[in-house]
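During the reporting period, we have paired protein sequences with backbone structure tokens. One record among many follows, to show the layout:
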Amino acid sequence: MATGATNAGNDGIHSSETSALHLSKEDGPASAKIRSLLGKRLRVVISDKRIFVGTFDCFDQNKNIILTYAQEWTSIDNPDSAKSVGQVLVPGEHIVSCDVEKADT
């Protein structure tokens, strides 16, 4: 799955580069809300307690998401555990929570 090389209307994949496309008839209000988050910084916690923070770039019908410019933490209690992972695909079945990071003011 490559970002930007997809078409939301044909294969159910939505990326920040295709977000201007019209919603297909399978898309509902939840999908529209998720699409509004494309390009925002997200914090995603997965089932093994790892935390990823990155720019929300893409999602599909299976709730898999791709984060770009991402960092991974193995423990929220240990800020020194952070490492840069670049681009990461997070399987939807492992997502425990997903939050939008607030911008610094």
The two ends are 35 Å apart (CA to CA). Residues 8-100 form a domain with the SH3 type barrels. fold (CATH 2.30.30.100).
